[in-house]
Amino acid sequence: MTVQSTKLEYLPSDLKKELLPKHVAVIMDGNGRWAIGRGLPRIMGHKQGVNILKDLLRCCQDWGIKALTVYAFSTENWGRPKEEVEFLMTLFGGVLRQELGEMLQENVKISFVGNLQALPNALQSEISRSMEETKHNRGIYFNVATNYGGREEILQACRAIAKKVDQGIIQPSEIDQAIFEHHLYTAPNCDPDLIIRTSGEMRLSNFLLWQLAYSEIYFTETLWPDFDRSEFKKALSAYQQRERRFGKV
Question: End of a domain among 184, 203, 229?
Fold first, then answer.
């Protein structure tokens, strides 16, 4: 994967390997503002954001983080200008075609979560191909939330379980967290340990509402196209200072 950032092979000495999150989720916010602040079209922010994402994925691989989930396109993003939405759909497909070979070489397993049937047919084909060709890879799990909404994910899980109850496959008394999670888009991935949101916004924006119940949250003013490895290291350092009790003393 071709990137602009400097590749650092090893975990920085002031980060503790045993305290790294196993799964990091990211709300990549601020592409448009980054471009406008430089007098550029909004689409240039998205292009730079892709470069940052590629380096973050490689950084997670280098530093021993097992899974990365990113919020690429929400169910609410369809409300953006038509030209921007069309550009994003084209960009997603182009990146998949361009990067699939290197993802195979670097042992990346990619999956897409969300209502994928609503995406353009050409993009659906690229998504299916990338998931099929990388399904046996075990280097890092790379999950891309596309046309994703947390509330809709919960609703579709409820509908799927209700259908099985109606068919007699599941008894209501058998429904527990494990069964519910099995019907989420993100199954069978583990929940994120750390979620990062860039650009200074402090909300989840309908992202992984079930899965983030006990995730550590890190907000930064840095716009996504400026979120390089040094910024990621700050997020990991903050994470390692926290005590995770999961409701216990």
Answer: 184
Selecting among 51, 62, 77, 189, the annotated active-site residue is 77
Do 144 and 201 reside in the same domain of the chain? yes
29 is catalytic: yes
Domain span including residue 83: 20-65+77-92+103-148+185-240
Tell me, yes or no, whether 112 and 49 share the same domain: yes
- List the catalytic residue out of 29, 55, 191, 193: 29
55 catalytic per annotation? no
For residue 248, what pLDDT band results from cuts at 50, 70 and 90? confident
To the question of pTM greater than 0.70 for the whole model, the response is yes
Q: How confident is the model at residue 1 (pLDDT cuts 50, 70, 90)?
A: very low
What number of other Cβ atoms are within 10 A of residue 64's Cβ? 13
Q: DSSP string covering 4-38, please? A: SSPP--S--TTS-GGGS-SEEEEE---HHHHHHTT
Supply the mean pLDDT for the chain.
Answer: 94
